[in-house]
Amino acid sequence: MKKSIKNICCIGAGYVGGPTMAVIADKCPHIEVNVVDINKDRILAWNSPNTEEIPIFEPGLSEIVKRRRGVNLFFSTEVKEQIAKADMIFISVNTPTKKRGVGAGKASDLKWVESSARQIAKYSKGYTIVVEKSTLPVKTAEVIKSILEASQSTSHNEKGTKFSVLSNPEFLAEGTAIDDLLNPDRVLIGGENKEDIELLSEIYYEWVPKNKIIKTNVWSSELAKLTANAFLAQRISSINSIAALCEATGADVREVSRAIGSDSRIGSKFLDCGPGFGGSCFKKDILNLVYLSEYLGLKEVANFWESVVTLNKWHQHRISKLITKKLFGTLSEKKISILGFAFKENTNDTRESSAIQICKDLLEEGAELFIHDPKVNPEQISSDLNLLPNNIKSKANNQNSKIKEGTWNSANSVESALINSDAVLILTEWSEYSTINWKKVSKLMRKPAWVFDARSIIDPKEVLKSGLNLWRVGDGVI
Ligand code: NAD
Ligand code: UGA
Q1: Range of the structural domain that residue 330 is part of
Q2: CB atoms within 10 A of CB 470
Q3: Where are the beta strands (DSSP E) in 213-351?
Q4: For residue range 309-361, what is the model confidence (pLDDT) as tens digits?
Q5: Active site residue 9
Q6: Average pLDDT over residues 96-113
């Protein structure tokens, strides 16, 4: 075993690999950290001279990259070279839901994890600690280990390589990644080899209090990560289901959240109703849990967790149907302003954003959408909706589009989005939307006009005073 870790390699320069390694480099100046990726453009962006142009927007990240890049933090495509130099290798690659084959639609696709393991097996030298940072199905460490061990047993292996596999799932949330990494509720490390667990713990001891580092076995660690996401998502589906009940009964879901959240056994976090949960992980990780349960013959367990995802989808459709109904049953020739496309504030990530499903529904009804988001670029929105915006549509042939009905335009300001609109729908809780001057903007809209607030971020009194109709998720009182 190694006495200390001097060189770390992280495979995968994504939302997890980039910020996590930046924080490790910042807190451990004695360690050289190399983040590698097969995506050349992403690496190019991580190396852009202006750190404001790095590929991931996270408050506080660009400052850290500015401080450490070229000092002890490096981004490159030199996968082979950096694996060979490393004492410890983090696997932070994507693990999306499988699109075809056995387990399609539910199980995680471990293609990228497997290829990382094979690269490690091929290029690493000496004793190497392999750390699973990606979210993985239970017992993946066993798969990684068997790939690594197979390389040791071949006659080609004269390098004397030995491996140890640890699970160290990441709990950061996008938009608050740096703060979550600097002040984690806990760091979870699963493994068999106590000395290696200690070596990984020593990295975290540089800034995380010892009592926040939980050490356990590998499978409990892998399952704890899936369970944490499943529990969080379950709370959101629970409160969104109650929101529908509130609208039908004249109650206010915010009051219900406040009342139940003050019970210390329930707690107040993750009880905000919204347009449904998005993000790259909740749905994927729950479906992974569903697949695992089905595989193990635990049908009722699988059904229980699957209902969290079903409710989320139902809730998204509920919102688009409700908008159509309030706008007299048709959206054809109606202009709707969409405020926010990211799956939450402070991120440019749109993966599984509820905005995608809701906008697709509205487009199917024939609406003309004007979409504004302070961080998401129009190319991303086009790709998510599989539809070019009107602004550039005339220049390109849009035959690939599956949606024939509505159209969309990219709006570069809130006001330009609102001109002549019949309704405005708030889908992301960007703070700039909470300070909209409704008295002023109501004059821009075509009457009768509606405000649909799916994030509960605006003052209902201000909206109603300005002569606009208002719907808020879970508000049966207005
Ligand atoms: P991502 O898609 O942003 O980044 C993954 C990167 O890995 C990509 O840039 C890809 O090119 C690279 N890659 C894939 N295979 C490679 C290989 N063989 N060699 C080199 N590079 C390779 O993904 P992400 O959001 O960072 O998520 C990574 C993992 O972390 C997933 O398992 C996810 O579930 C988990 N996770 C994500 C978050 C989050 O907030 N996004 C939080 C906690 C955990
Ligand atoms: C989530 C978890 O919070 C992280 O701990 C985990 O590491 C990560 O998934 C992961 O494994 O990828 P993230 O998806 O980045 O993080 O963001 P969250 O803050 O959890 O929000 C997820 C979705 O739920 C967003 O669409 C958000 O708007 C929604 N949400 C969240 C609500 O609708 N209500 C709430 O009360 C909280």
Answers
A1: 218-478
A2: 18
A3: 213-216, 335-339
A4: 999 999 999 999 999 999 999 999 999 999 999 999 999 999 999 999 999 99
A5: no
A6: 94
